[in-house]
Task: inverse folding
């Protein structure tokens, strides 16, 4: 019998959860950095710890079964996972919300490049052409973001490269090791915590963080950010494992448009009227991609029935 995979409802639900939690965590983290000055890498450790605890609870509740895997196969994934979160958080800390999201939009063409030249994965010409309006929208928005800086740009570039590699490897490892999203993240999140614990003493000494008098509001926001991070991490793995990194990133461009507007209203980040054209171009690329991918999936289903 043909494996139908997850239904449209489950995919839509996962995308909606990821969309809401991803937007929420951007503004939570930005608020924690700008208002309370909470250290970046330490906050990332909290995210991984909360993700590990959440998955341990899911295991106890029988939501997934523990499966033995060779740990050395997860080391590269854990390293890129740490780099992905650290560099994107540093980008968020050193850039406006708009610049942060604009840089993330370049993850899509970067993933397509990695898939094409390193994994022999092919994309139709019309799918590739949808990157034109998306990239044009990113460039147009970048021109009118007046707060670009060298440090923030370096972090944003590193974040794009590491994030692209990480998302490709998530899909590859899930298929290679025959693991579902919870099983893979269950092993990888604690490994990432241990890796970051080796880095924290050199950049953000733990005794300095503990000695600082944090308000209850700040601590509650940090815990809330960790809980939302669990939702983000789990939904990323599920979506990539059941669709593709490119599809996940196309949904991410919608988050870009929403966070761009949110950055304007919450943090008073500059938003020129011309940037609206960039937003429109980005949305047009997303709609075209969705249309073409749905047509290709329908054609593939018809071909499989004929065979």
Result:
């Amino acid at each position: 019998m043909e494996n139908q995979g997850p239904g449209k409802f489950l995919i839509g639900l996962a995308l909606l959860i990821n969309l809401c939690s991803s937007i929420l965590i951007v503004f939570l983290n930005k608020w924690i950095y700008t208002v309370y000055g909470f250290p970046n890498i330490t906050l990332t450790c909290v995210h991984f710890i909360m993700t590990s605890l959440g998955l341990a609870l899911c295991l106890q509740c029988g939501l997934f079964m523990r499966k033995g895997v060779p740990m050395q196969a997860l080391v590269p994934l854990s390293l890129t996972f740490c780099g992905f979160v650290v560099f994107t958080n540093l980008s968020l800390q050193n850039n406006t919300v708009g610049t942060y999201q604009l840089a993330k939009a370049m993850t899509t063409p970067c993933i397509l490049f990695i898939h094409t030249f390193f994994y022999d994965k092919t994309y139709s010409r019309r799918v590739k052409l949808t990157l034109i309006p998306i990239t044009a929208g990113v460039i147009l928005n970048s021109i009118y973001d007046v707060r670009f800086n060298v440090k923030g740009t370096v972090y944003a570039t590193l974040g794009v490269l590491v994030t692209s590699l990480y998302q490709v490897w998530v899909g590859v490892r899930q298929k290679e090791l025959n693991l579902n999203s919870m099983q893979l993240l269950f092993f990888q999140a604690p490994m990432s915590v241990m890796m970051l614990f080796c880095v924290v003493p050199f950049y953000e000494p733990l005794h300095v963080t503990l000695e600082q008098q944090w308000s209850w509001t700040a601590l509650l926001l940090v815990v809330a950010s960790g809980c939302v991070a669990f939702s983000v991490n789990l939904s990323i793995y599920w979506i990539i494992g059941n669709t593709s990194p490119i599809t996940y990133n196309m949904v991410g461009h919608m988050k870009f448009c929403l966070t761009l507007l949110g950055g304007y209203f919450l943090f008073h980040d500059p938003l020129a009227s011309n940037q609206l054209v960039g937003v429109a171009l980005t949305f047009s690329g997303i709609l075209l991609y969705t249309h073409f991918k749905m047509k290709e999936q329908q054609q593939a289903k018809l071909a499989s029935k004929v065979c």
